[in-house]
């Protein structure tokens, strides 16, 4: 048998010889070729172009490590899942995990769940116990909630400790008061008359600038007086009236007798030396200072009955500040009786004991109060959103019907600490009576109308009688705003360490303390003997 292919490859002829000598022929046609030479050429050209890239990728995988990728499946993952028909499951896994997290978030943590104490322990428990994703999510949520509770509790504990520190008397300041009181009894120079007899007429001379300071802190009083005198362009025009309580009177008198502030004039008076301050004239304050419920509120357990889960640390800090024992001290309420305590004076500047004077305050007496009584800095507008954002709603409980009926929550508040008072205009008003009336109402309501010291009743009593002065005269917040702008502090006429972090306390802000300590004479023997040292 023989096969014959045609030149075009389109047919095959089969021939064979049989026994009779004849030749059998069979012709078979082959199907037409569908691939042209041109198509074949293009295919070979494309393959020639792609093969070098496949070679390069294969070489890169091999260089990365043969042991890491020894299978075609691994090579496929490296060259691209989609190129080899494999789909990346990471997106689905993430969606599944989100679903599990949402389920755990909506559920409850088992009360008997034992939580690991650290991340390392969590990983170890997962390996040993073969946790599934849901169990891991539950453990993670439990650990996070536990950590949040601990942080919150430590923050409230810190605030409580800070409150106790702010309410206590530092050992050095207590020592100073005792030593100066002893000096008063043994040293005639410490008992000399202040001011001297020849200067007594100046105490009621309205051509001078009269400052009033009410405090039982001798060191703080010395800074206020010294900074005022040193910053004044006319110190000889300054007359200071320092009011203190009976127990501090001897020590306060000794300090200023032994450390004169010439050429300024200074008078030291104890509350017990004012004939006008009788129980008949201040019955409400007597009740405030002695009522057991009020004393328990300011001196008792501040955590008792407090629901810390419903309040923020900042709100809790404000509540603690409102419960400072100083708010039931008569010294803190004295400013409401200035017209009666100084009947011969026309205009005075009242200063708190936690201020520092950095600029001459003489121009305050030139401010036209336009018939108003109180020249004060408003605290509802300013660069500091925390310090200068105070309205009536920040001080009063507007759910109380009496408050809601008489006050506007959006009315702008103002600050105590540095105020210019026109006592002549004051004497034509009923400020004191209004103050007493609202104090009585708050006592009747068990302090449910307000709980922040002496400012709220003053905001009501002086309503409509306050003349706003430029904020540069009085900068607030140095006792609670750690982020106080230093440049603004330097420019302010009066800086006020209102808040718990007083500069004479260890909890005072270090970067703000030098503005106060610069007026402390640390070389004074009394300060040195009481270990009041420059920090």
From TrEMBL:
Transmembrane segments: 39-63
GO BP, one annotated term: cell wall organization
GO cellular component: Golgi membrane
Enzyme class, spelled out: transferase
Membrane topology of this protein: Single-pass type II membrane protein
CDD domains recorded: GT8_like_1
A GO term for molecular function: polygalacturonate 4-alpha-galacturonosyltransferase activity
UniProt pathway annotation: Glycan metabolism; pectin biosynthesis
UniProt keyword Secreted, yes or no: no
A Pfam family annotated for this UniProt entry: Glyco_transf_8
Localization terms from the record: Golgi apparatus membrane
This enzyme's EC code(s): 2.4.1.-
Key words of the record: Cell wall biogenesis/degradation, Glycosyltransferase, Golgi apparatus, Membrane, Transferase, Transmembrane, Transmembrane helix
Family affiliation: Belongs to the glycosyltransferase 8 family.
PANTHER family hit by this protein: GALACTURONOSYLTRANSFERASE 13-RELATED, GALACTURONOSYLTRANSFERASE 4-RELATED
Protein name: Hexosyltransferase
Gene responsible for this protein: Vigan.04G044400
